[in-house]
Amino acid sequence: VKRCFGKIALTKRNISELFSSHEHIRRFISENTEICGEQSLTPEVKLRLFTPNCRFWTERPELWPFEDPYWAIYWPGGQALSRYLLDNPAVCRGKAVLDLGSGCGASAIAAQLCGAAHVVANDIDTVAAVATCMNCELNAVEPPVCVTDNMIGSQIEGFDLILLGDMFYDEVLATSLHNWLDLCIQTHGTKVLIGDPGRAQFEEHNIRLLLHRLAQFELPQCVREENYGLTRSSVWSYHPNTLFLQT
């Protein structure tokens, strides 16, 4: 497992430094998010998220001091992926897991709760890494290794499982993911699970023909309202050498 991290690996000391050097980010997150999760697909997982009770739900966007806060929303693909892991803990148990585009860290937390041997949460936003560590505290799990370099296209090895929730929202990104995931699977035999609620960029991409649906979940009403009426979210396994009929 150690080989897969190389120079970008963070030790427990690095995680401690992340906490101390970004204490202002921790305070900001604490003051501008609300602990919730009960109305998601994974009510057993607590997360710090934006809600209508939070200042920046209605505040002018230009006053936001960081990058766009994708980490502050529990996206429906990530919800389905986390629910699937919690319902099927053997998928992660004893495995080295990479949560790519980890956001709030829910899937990384689910993998930890399922007994994964090692978990890496990768998000290019440093604030997301801090939020992930804070969410781990809420759920009494060890913080994962947090990597803020862009790992898409990089040479990685040692991961048994790669998780992607809500990553196929852009055609260019979807294509780069397609090519990179092919390489990871063919070179290292990595298993890939994808969570997506059926966005057009996902359904219309060629990668869709290489996916087998493992599970489908009805989204809670509040999640539907926050996601333009999307009603379901699915988990897919990726098989680059097999074509599946559209379902």
TrEMBL record:
Q: What's the superkingdom here?
A: Eukaryota
Q: Please indicate if the UniProt record lists Methyltransferase as a keyword.
A: yes
* Gene Ontology molecular function: protein-lysine N-methyltransferase activity
Which keywords accompany this UniProt record? Answer: Methyltransferase, Transferase
Q: Could you provide one GO biological process annotation from this protein's UniProt record?
A: methylation
Report the catalytic activity: L-lysyl-[protein] + 3 S-adenosyl-L-methionine = N(6),N(6),N(6)-trimethyl-L-lysyl-[protein] + 3 S-adenosyl-L-homocysteine + 3 H(+)
Q: What is one GO cellular-component annotation here?
A: mitochondrial matrix
Instruction: State the Pfam families in the record.
Output: PrmA (PF06325)
* Family (UniProt): Belongs to the methyltransferase superfamily. ETFBKMT family.
- Name of the molecule in the record: Electron transfer flavoprotein beta subunit lysine methyltransferase
